[in-house]
Here is the input.
Amino acid sequence: MSEVNKERVLQALRMVFDPDKERDIVSLGMVSGLQVKDGHVAFAIEVEPERGPRLEPLRKAAEKAVWALDGVLTANVALTAERPAAKAAPPRSESQQGSARQGSGGHPPLLPGVRAIIAVASGKGGVGKSTTAVNLALALKALGLRVGLLDADVYGPSIPRLMGIKGKPTSADGRRLQPMENYGIKCMSMGFLVDEETPVVWRGPMVMSALEQMMRDVNWGELDVLVVDMPPGTGDTQLTMSQRVPLAGAVIVSTPQDIALADARKGLAMFRKVEVPLLGIVENMSYFLCPDNGKRYNIFGHGGAKDEADRQNVPFLGEIPLDIDIRETSDSGRPIVVSQPEGAHAQAYLAIARKVWAQVEARLNDAHQQGPRIIVQ
Ligand code: ADP
Here is the structure.
C-alpha cells in the first residue's frame, strides 16, 4: 500500500473548490492543522462563522477527496468557524484544534452522551455474532450499566428479531428518532426503518450515511455503553465506525473451526490496523452438551479461539456452547440472558460482560486522567 503524505493530501484538496469563491480550498488558505500519520489524515477547513452551516457539502467533498487516495485508513475533516479575518488570529494550539474537531464549528460528536462504544464483530456470518452482541448487551445491563444496542448491519439487520421488537421508531420533535426499547435496552436498527421484505439496494455512501444517521439522529441520551452489532467481515462499515466514533474496543466472535478462525484473524488484523483496542475473542458454539446422555461433543472442534487469542496476545473472553435454548430464545426475541437469567448460559455471558467492562472501564479511567483523547493522531 502506498504511503499517504501531506503533499498528496494537499494535492487532492486542490481539487476541492469553495462554492462561493470558486477557488480551491488550499490556495484560499482554508486548510489548517493538517496531520498525516500512518494512513490517518486529519485537518480542519476554516470558514467564516456565517457560512459554517451551509458548508457541510464542502466538508464532505474534502473528506471524499482524501478517501480517494491510496493508503488512507481514516479521514477526519472538521469545519471550524474562525473569528472574522480582520483580527489576526493567534496560532491555533493542539487543544484548540482538538476541540474544534469535536466541534462547535460544524462537526459535533456523533454520540455525545455515550461513554463507551463496543463493536461486536466476526470474520464471517453465521457464527453467532448478533446473538452474542444481544446477550452481551443484556449482561452489561444486568451489571447495572445503561446500555444501548446499535445494529450496524444495514444489509441484514437482525436486532429487531433478536430483541423481540416490532414497530417503527417515532420522533417527538420531527428531527431525531426515539430509539426502540425492550428489556431496558435502547435499540436502533435499519430493520425498524425499512420493511423486512423490501430489498434495499445499498450503495457504499448510502450505507455510511444510514449508519451516521442511526448515531447522530437518534436520541440515545446518556449511556454507559453502546454495543454495536457489526456486519460480518471487514468492510466499509468497520472502517467507518472506527473512523467516525471513538471505539472503546472490539469483541471478536468466532466458532472453533480453523476456517472461521482464519476469518476472525482478518478481523483482528483490521481492528489493529485502525488502532481499535481488541477486548478479546469469544468462542461461540464451542461444544455441545448432549441433554440425553450428558456427554460433551466438540462438534466444530474446541479451543481454537483460545489458542488464537493466546497467539494474538489478546484476551480470551469465554466460551458459549452450541445449545438449542440459546438458538430458540435468540430467534424468538427472548435472549437467554433475560429468559433464563439464573442458567449456566446467562452466567457465561455475564462473565464475558464483566471481562469486557473491566477493560473498558480501565481505559475510561486512563483517558480521564490523561484528558481528552483525540482519535486521530
Ligand atoms: P451472525 O450474527 O454471526 O450471523 P447469529 O447470531 O444470527 O449469527 O446466529 C446464527 C444462528 O445461529 C441463529 O439462528 C442463532 O440463533 C444461532 N446461534 C447462535 N449462537 C448459538 C449457540 N451458541 N447455540 C445455538 N445456536 C446459536
